[in-house]
Amino acid sequence: SAVISQKPSRDICQRGTSLTIQCQVDSQVTMMFWYRQQPGQSLTLIATANQGSEATYESGFVIDKFPISRPNLTFSTLTVSNMSPEDSSIYLCSVDPRGQLYGYTFGSGTRLTVV
Amino acid sequence: AQSVSQHNHHVILSEAASLELGCNYSYGGTVNLFWYVQYPGQHLQLLLKYFSGDPLVKGIKGFEAEFIKSKFSFNLRKPSVQWSDTAEYFCAVNPDMGRRALTFGSGTRLQVQP
User: Fold this and answer.
1) What is the mean pLDDT of chain B?
2) Residue of A21, A36, A42, A56 to mutate, testing the B interface (most B Cβ within 10 Å of its Cβ)
3) How far is CA A90 from the centre of its chain?
4) Are B102 and A92 in contact (CB < 8 Å)?
5) Does position B96 have pLDDT exceeding 60, yes or no?
6) Which of A28, A64, A25 is nearest to A47 (CA)?
7) The predicted structure's pLDDT at residue A104
8) Strands A110-114 and A10-13, bridge-based pairing
9) pLDDT per position as a tens digit, B62-75
10) Cβ contacts (< 8 Å) between A5 and chain B: which residues?
């Protein structure tokens, strides 16, 4: 299965600042997904990122707050903008490498704390 | 909207006890079903998955799950748990092939006592 390198693994940020999270995949994938896992809660999909097109955001998430880049088939970034303490979460990227739902692979996550 | 329910939020078992974690989903069409595990400090790992065929699915580390379509359920089982099974378990569903992303349940924290 695909291997995802996600960084940073954790960060503590001041409110009002922005953080960019990177995900690098060791193979080419069509779709990359970004999730948020708030403390004690499940994973919630933020957006789906396709190479060469705008990301598709889920209800409650907007591009101005969570801009996503997908410059090629192995890389994507998620930026958490103008952060507030409510943004403190674990952010994960995920891919479906074979395109046939053989098993989604997840990055190790970025634990973000906003103070 | 699709949803996934995991009824057990926190389960505490002794080693060698049997395990069953419930998972129900709300979607009337064809679904793909997954169980993921997250060990402390580690990333999500796929335990098992169901797409079609035999509704009893066997996964890694002795886990299995049974898909019961009439009950919209996909419960996870293990006949004898070990201390190393202490982790968070997530049920996930992909009910919409076009959407492709997973919808997760709230998770079940399993604590196995030696």
Assistant:
1) 91
2) A42
3) 9
4) no
5) no
6) A64
7) 85
8) parallel
9) 999 999 999 999 99
10) none
In the block, residue with structure tokens 């990333």: B43
CA gap A98, B82 in Å, rounded: 32
Confidence (pLDDT) at A101:
56
- Report the SS3 class of residue B83: helix
Q: Is A47 on the interface with B (CB under 8 A)?
A: no
CA distance B114 to B109: 16
Tens digit of pLDDT at every position of chain A (115 positions): 788 999 999 999 999 999 999 999 999 988 899 999 998 788 999 999 988 888 999 999 999 999 999 999 999 999 999 999 999 999 999 998 665 556 788 999 999 999 9
Between chains, do A48 and B101 touch, taking CB under 8 Å as contact?
yes
What is the token pair recorded at A42? Answer: 């499940």
CB of B47 closer than 8 Å to CB of B63: yes
Own/partner pairs, B97-103, CB within 8 angstroms, 24+ separation: B99/A48, B100/A31, B100/A33, B100/A48, B100/A96, B100/A101, B101/A33, B101/A45, B101/A48, B101/A94, B102/A33, B102/A43, B102/A45, B102/A94, B102/A104, B102/B34, B103/A45, B103/B2, B103/B3, B103/B4, B103/B25
By C-alpha distance, which of B91, B97, B101, B106 is closest to B29? B97
CB contact under 8 A, A43 and B104: yes
CA distance A53 to A95: 16
CA dihedral B89, B74, A104, B90 (to 10 degrees): -20
Q: Tokens 């748990």 — which residue?
A: B81
